[in-house]
Amino acid sequence: MRTALVTGGSRGIGLEVCRRLGTVDVDVLVNNAAVLLGEDDSVLTAPPEHFRRSMETNAYGPLGLCQALMPGMLRRRYGRIVNVSSGAGQLAGMTDYAPTYSVSKAALNALTLLLAHAGRGRNVLVNAVDPGWVRTDMGGASAPRSVGEGADTIVWCAHRPAEREHG
């Protein structure tokens, strides 16, 4: 029996992902829950507490869930983990926007790479997805993307077929 766990699934993108996953033919973990604190803060003035809370929710929470659930996926040789990240966490394009959020999402991106290597060759696929700027409580009413558009790639990754490994 396959199971799906979606954090932050009570509203917004997470709720839409839950609706679309319905019954799963895959063991799926979607790390969607996140906080955006001090969006207009400077890295020089952002309270350390904002960094701590952002890291706990946006990086350490997903890490804990992966440490708890991924070993079972590896034993069963099947699983899909989707970490919902953000363009704000991409090092190459990072600006002074929301420093606590950006740092935590960069950490999530690094974690995703490490987890993907841990699942390699065992049919456990781990991806990070940037849903874009979406009309949610976090994104606001002026965001250009709908919740459905934000969920599209997340759901695709949750159902992603195994790829033939080369090497």
Outline:
The protein has 4 helices and 4 strands. Helices cover 43% and strands 11% of the residues.
Can you tell me about this structure?
It is built from 4 helices and 4 strands. The model has no long low-confidence stretch (mean pLDDT 90). A 4-stranded parallel sheet has the order 1-2-3-4, sandwiched between helices. By secondary structure, it is α/β, with parallel strands linked by helices. It is globular, with a radius of gyration of 16 Å. The protein has a single domain (4-158), classed as NAD(P)-binding Rossmann-like Domain (Rossmann fold, 3-Layer(aba) Sandwich), CATH 3.40.50.720. Helix 1 links the parallel strand 1 and strand 2 (28-31).
Element layout with pairings:
Elements: E1 4-6, H1 12-21, E2 28-31, H2 48-76, E3 79-84, H3 99-119, E4 124-129, H4 147-158
Parallel strand pairs: 1-2, 2-3, 3-4
User: Fraction of residues in helices?
Assistant: 40-55%
End-to-end Cα distance, whole Å, is 32 Å
Beta-strand fraction estimate: 5-15%
Looking at CATH, the homologous superfamily is NAD(P)-binding Rossmann-like Domain
> Which spans have pLDDT < 50 for at least 5 consecutive residues?
none
